[in-house]
Specification:
Layout: H1 5-13, E1 23-27, E2 35-40, H2 55-61, E3 64-67, H3 71-75, H4 77-86, H5 95-98, H6 101-115, H7 122-128, H8 133-148, H9 159-169, E4 174-176, H10 180-188, H11 193-205, H12 207-222, H13 226-233, H14 245-269, E5 272-277, H15 287-293, E6 297-300
Parallel strand pairs: 2-5, 3-4, 3-5
Antiparallel strand pairs: 1-2, 1-6
Helix pairs in contact: 1-12, 4-10, 8-11, 12-13
Length: about 300
């Protein structure tokens, strides 16, 4: 996810592959009415919804919307406070304490080059110096994406939020497959501080590779090509910077398996529109295959 708006324009007009869908219908296995699942891109332009065939019909045919999180829970002041606390280093620690002098300088140089000010700026150090390395990685990824896709991402109206907002307009219930606390743990706490530091340095030292990987993921999303998305997600440097199988399982596979334990009851209660990150859909352990393995008919729209 990161390069030029020209790339995005090309992607939007690209031919759709055999697996060129983001929206899928779930039926059979005892369901009286079908449910739907759509793959999202957390930083995508909301306007792209209009280019996905069948979305309006799917929303009309369903009686509730589920996301990874319930949006109201995510924006709840208590949840935001809890999320902020998880993103901080242990009490009394700063980045200067856990980074070597060389690592701290590389971080400062990176921030200065990209943001105009780094940790050598006392104000910046005071504001960001207590963030965990993984919190910085997440923020840098978003900032770099926004810099390379100016005007595409509006944090006040996100692609994920859109579907729950539509449900609320129609007085339909919304729900989340995970809690804010669980997702915060997965994103910011499951790795040791040492591994977080390594991942931060990997982002800084391999910016071009990471940009290429994220750009390929964005390109695949806008082309509605889940095979290409999976291929981009699986790109490797061949170093310790690559996610371990255990880390990938924590972020994707284990969560997919957990969601599948919840989705049958949710769909049986009422036809549901699920909106989750597109990276959770493809592959043998992706939600589409897991739903098929469970006896459902899953068809692209």
């Amino acid at each position: 996810m990161k390069r030029t708006l020209l790339t995005i324009a090309v992607c939007m007009t690209a031919a759709v592959s055999m697996n060129g869908q983001l929206l899928y219908k779930i039926s059979g296995n005892g369901l009286e009415k079908p449910s739907y699942i759509i793959g999202t891109h957390h930083l995508a332009n909301v306007g792209f919804v209009e280019k996905i065939n069948g979305v309006k019909e799917a929303l009309t045919e369903t009686d509730q919307v589920y996301g990874e999180l319930k949006w109201e829970a995510l924006t709840n002041p208590d949840s935001l406070k809890a999320m902020q606390e998880v993103m901080m280093l242990p009490e009394g620690k700063t980045l200067k304490d856990i980074l070597t002098a060389d690592q701290y300088k590389r971080l400062d140089d990176f921030m200065t080059a990209k943001l105009g000010a780094g940790m050598s700026n006392p104000t910046v150090a005071a504001q960001m110096g207590k963030l965990s390395p993984m919190a910085l990685v997440t923020q840098f990824q978003v900032l770099l994406y926004m810099m390379n896709h100016m005007g595409e991402f509006d944090p006040s109206s996100t692609f994920d939020q859109y579907f729950q907002a539509q449900a609320q307009k129609n007085n339909l219930p919304c729900g989340g497959l995970e809690t804010v606390a669980f997702q915060a743990q997965v994103l910011y706490k499951d790795q040791t501080l040492e591994r977080q530091v390594e991942q931060l340095m990997c982002l800084i030292d391999n910016e071009q590779f990471n940009s290429q990987m994220m750009e390929e993921m964005s390109k695949a999303f806008y082309a509605q090509d889940l095979d290409a998305l999976k291929k981009a997600m699986d790109l490797k440097l061949g170093t310790s910077c690559d996610s371990t199988p255990e880390e990938e399982a924590t972020l994707i596979d284990n969560r997919n398996a957990d969601w599948l334990t919840k989705m049958p009851a949710i769909m049986k209660e009422r036809p549901t529109f699920f909106a989750v990150g597109a990276g959770h859909l493809p592959g043998e352990k992706g939600l589409l295959q897991l739903l098929r393995n469970a006896g459902y008919t899953v068809e692209g729209q």
